[in-house]
Amino acid sequence: MDVIFIEEFRIDTLVGVYEWERKVPQTIQFDIQIGIPGPDAAQSDDLDDTIDYGEVVARIRDSLSVNHFLLLERLAEHVADIILHEFRAPWCKVSVAKLNLIRGVARLGVRIERSSGRTT
Q1: Crossing angle (nearest 10°) for helices 53-66 and 72-81
Q2: CA distance 59 to 79
Q3: What is the pTM of this model?
Q4: What sign does the CA torsion over 74, 94, 55, 89 have?
Q5: Maximum Cα–Cα distance for the chain, whole Å?
Q6: Helix (H, G, I), strand (E, B) or coil at 12
Q7: Which residues are part of the catalytic machinery?
Q8: For residue 119, pLDDT beyond 70
């Protein structure tokens, strides 16, 4: 399967269970892998045959400007839902991490992998 990747995508958003986390935006880092829905783009050189990663980034930014989550697990699931349903990707892997939250830990977070059930 051909894969688009978006690495070290950072955005400030509200996420967390603690009261201070729901008041002060934190920088969250995403690493995303997206299965391309078929091999056509490699042959056609046509953007219509793939997923526009710029649109994916813009859509996630837009969504996180209005949606906030308590758990990173739910945030990762939300992003995977966008990728699978709005962009019709057959598969994706989403890693979401909080940065420098705990002394001595550069990143901590979750990684999920989801499939749409569609075949390429």
Answers
A1: 130
A2: 9
A3: 0.92
A4: negative
A5: 51
A6: strand
A7: 98
A8: no
Please work out, in degrees rounded to the nearest 5, the angle formed at the alpha carbon of residue 95 by the alpha carbons of 91 and 97.
165
Q: Where exactly are the structural domains of the chain?
A: 3-115
Q: Output 16-22 pairs: Cβ under 8 A, ≥24 positions apart.
A: 16/70, 16/98, 17/70, 17/71, 22/68
- Calculate the average pLDDT of the chain: 93
Give the type of residue at 116. S
**73-93: per-residue pLDDT in tens?**
999 999 999 999 999 999 999
Q: Can you tell me the distance from the alpha carbon of 82 to that of 106, in angstroms, rounded to the nearest whole number?
A: 27
Whole-angstrom distance, CA of residue 30 vs CA of residue 97: 7
The span from the CA of 98 to the CA of 95, in Å, is 10
pLDDT above 70: residue 118: no
* 3-115 under CATH 3.30.1130.10, yes or no: yes
